[in-house]
Amino acid sequence: MSDIILKACNLKKYYEVNQGLFSSGDLVKAVDDVSLEVRRGETFAIVGESGCGKSTLGRLLMQLLVPTEGEVEFEGKALSKHSDKDLSTLRKEVQFVFQDPFSSLNPRMTVRKLISEPLEIHRKDLSSKQRDDKVKQLLEQVGLRVEHANRYPHEFSGGQRQRIGIARALASGPKLIIGDEPVSALDVSVQAQVVNLLDDLRDEFELTLIIIAHDLSIIRQMSDRVAVMYLGKIVEMGPVDEVFSNPRHPYTLALLSAVPEPVVGQEKTLISLLGETPSPTASIPGCRFNNRCQFARNICRKTQPEISVAEAHEKHIVACHFWQDVAQSASENTMNTSRTRNEKLEARFKLYQAALKGEKAVPKLLGAIEQEELT
Amino acid sequence: MLAASSSSINSSLPVFSVADLNMRIAGSPTDLVENFSIDVFPGHTLCIVGESGCGKSISALALMGLLSPTEIDIRSGTIRFEGQEYPVSEAQNARHLRGDRLAMIFQEPMTSLNPAYKVGEQIAEAITCHHPFSSDEAKKRAIEMLAKVGIPAPAARFNEYPHQLSGGMRQRVMIAMALVNNPSLLIADEPTTALDVTIQAQIIELIRNLQKEANMGTIMITHDLGVVAKLATDVVVMYAGQIVEKGPVEAIFNDPQHPYTIGLLSSMPKLTGQRERLATIPGTVPTIQSMPSGCRFSSRCPFRAAICKEKPVARSFKNNHSVSCHFAPLDVILELSV
Ligand SMILES: Nc1ncnc2c1ncn2[C@@H]1O[C@H](COP(=O)(O)OP(=O)(O)O)[C@@H](O)[C@H]1O
Ligand SMILES: Nc1ncnc2c1ncn2[C@@H]1O[C@H](COP(=O)(O)OP(=O)(O)O)[C@@H](O)[C@H]1O
Ligand SMILES: [Mg+2]
Ligand SMILES: [Mg+2]
Fold first, then answer.
1. Which chain B residues contact residue A217 at CB under 8 A?
2. Which tens digit of pLDDT belongs to each residue from A310-366?
3. Is any ligand 1 atom within 6 A of the Cβ of residue A30?
4. Do B278 and A192 touch (CB under 8 A)?
5. Structure pTM?
6. Which ligand is nearest to the CA of B34?
7. What is the pLDDT confidence band of residue A375, given thresholds at 50, 70 and 90?
């Protein structure tokens, strides 16, 4: 089997908006000439601010949307070449997890029904008894309880609903799961639970994950490689650690500098972007980022930079005429300063984690207390 | 340097204090918010942080007198604002009398901007509502204020309608409207949550600068500990309607004492440093019907013990750092465990 599970070649998705009866409308280039390869078993992340085309790209990769131009290959086969049978295999093997599982879960279905529905479609070989067992198994695998099967979505918290959405996605036995902001709506403690769950499931089911998110810390936590999008284009792509510690595109640099980190007294230099994100219908000659970029020179207003390798030793690619300047600026800024270790704080985190694991020493030290089972 | 370090010496009196606010859904047996007490000092930013549903917004609405008494029963609580004292249940009257001294901004500016009026007119109206300015004077001040919050071409923007502005610009207009009468207290409820991260960073900068300049007290509500670290002088951590820990921002981030604060901090993914599996807080927030008695965090706390069935009293340490946990201070346990 090939190492590349999913491949996109020169994908475009254009929408015509505001068209009148006699006039043609403005063009929104939601996804504009995107090429990427996702490796089997990796977590690939797509990051960018709202409206940059992440969801549209996700739906194109899922082959839920027909591209204006370009092609998506899943396991070496393009959709146009798929027979109906292949398409149904594709629907089984590529699944989607949404940001708000509530709006994607039918409120009138019980959890059992919600999870067994994909089994009925894709696993016709199972008897109804086997199907029921499978539902129970999936519930446990995503950290829910068997008795939850009889309840309805509204009876669950946001985190639990996301677990239901994940169980439903897993039911058909997919090889690839695309998550569109799968943890964005969750509170931080619940978010951590779901991030860990997805990590475990990836190993257990040998999944490939594509995670769409706007939160850079979440992306760094979850993924191996990352593509940064701006106005429909990938502007930088490479291994997460490499891209985050040595950003080469001014937009990546600005994003990283803007993230408020939970550390007191850390004064990062904010690389402010000029102005605001242009209207999605604006036609911008040259580099699409040029009017917000402090590194821009004349050529940026004329010629669109090709995305190409910035570092010989890494698969780190960037679309910027002056990526060397950006790299220089990044290394001068706080990008590389690892936070100073705070021993006291780390001891406290360790104590918390030891208690979480139920280590005997902790309750004993806390005095004569009964440590009950945590639910 | 942040103004933060001055927080340990409270040289001045609080501009705004709340003592012992308790409230519940009318007819319910359990308090939605319990023993809520805070002090906000001039020039300081008090951040209220906690996960959704812990009672941040409802507390702010109570302080502004924006809750309906038929829905929410405010059982106790006193506000002290610029030297005057009144019960929280009468906050509505106080706001009518002194609306210019107290301002609030919300997460979604569209809830407080009228879509049918030009944004500039709405700011001008906020001025003339409290001051005997002519409409020309008010317009001039409104345009100055738009410029001050970083809106380009303010005179032209004066005539635009809210829907013509981007999310970030709308939030700037809201800030202009809230600050135009120089309030001594600003309450901001998740003002940057709906914004993209680069816009959020700009708005945080803006609030920080304006607040410093005006020496105004600010209550900033957020669920984002990153925003807290950037903006706060003092922090209040809430869980399920209770304040579990409060203190100067350095104390909360460098010396967290409550297991919930520690759990929250350690479940945040990091942008730098080593990547490790995230620590979590097990379980989910209890509903108001299933609230554990005693410490409300006990149903999820890894340190949980029999004593937690009793309500912990808030213990104070140095520098106004106080923690409601039977096991605080944790240093004793830590020393024993190494
Ligand atoms: N069906 C559609 N018709 C017209 N414009 C669309 C449609 N779907 C998306 N867009 C536009 O395409 C751009 C990218 O949208 P989207 O992929 O949802 O971005 P993201 O997920 O990054 O926020 C936006 O400008 C959006 O308004
Ligand atoms: N007007 C209301 N009537 C009844 N319950 C309310 C009302 N407003 C909020 N609540 C409840 O109070 C709790 C705290 O809500 P809120 O203050 O909005 O949380 P936060 O802002 O911290 O996310 C929640 O359980 C919520 O359902
Ligand atoms: Mg989207
Ligand atoms: Mg709220």
1. 268-271
2. 776 668 999 999 999 999 988 887 544 545 668 888 888 988 998 888 775 565 555
3. yes
4. yes
5. 0.92
6. 2
7. very low
- Of residues A57, A99, A62, A66, the one with CA closest to residue A231: A57
**Cα B298 → chain centroid:** 25
B5-14, B45-54, B329-338: which has the highest mean pLDDT?
B45-54
- Encoding tokens for residue A108? 């009138």
Indicate if the pLDDT at residue B171 is higher than 70.
yes
Q: How far is the CA of B30 from the centre of ligand 3 (A)?
A: 39
Please report the pLDDT score of residue A313 as a whole number. Answer: 64
Query: What single DSSP character describes residue A153?
Result: G
The residue of chain B with its CA nearest to that of A363 is B303
| Chain A residues lying within 8 Å of B336, measured CB to CB | 365
> E-strand spans in chain A?
4-17, 26-39, 43-47, 69-74, 77-78, 94-97, 176-180, 208-213, 225-230, 233-239, 308-311, 316-318
CA B98 to chain centre: 20
This model of the complex carries an ipTM of 0.89
Chain A contacts of B272, Cβ < 8 Å? 245, 261, 337-339
Which of B52, B197, B209, B265 is best to mutate for the A interface (most A CBs within 10 A)? B197
How many angstroms does the Cα of residue A185 sit away from the middle of ligand 2? 17
The one-character DSSP state at A291 is G
For the segment A197-235, what is each residue's pLDDT rounded down to a tens digit?
999 999 999 999 999 999 999 999 999 999 999 999 999
- Helices B259-266 and A343-356: crossing angle in degrees, nearest 10, is 100
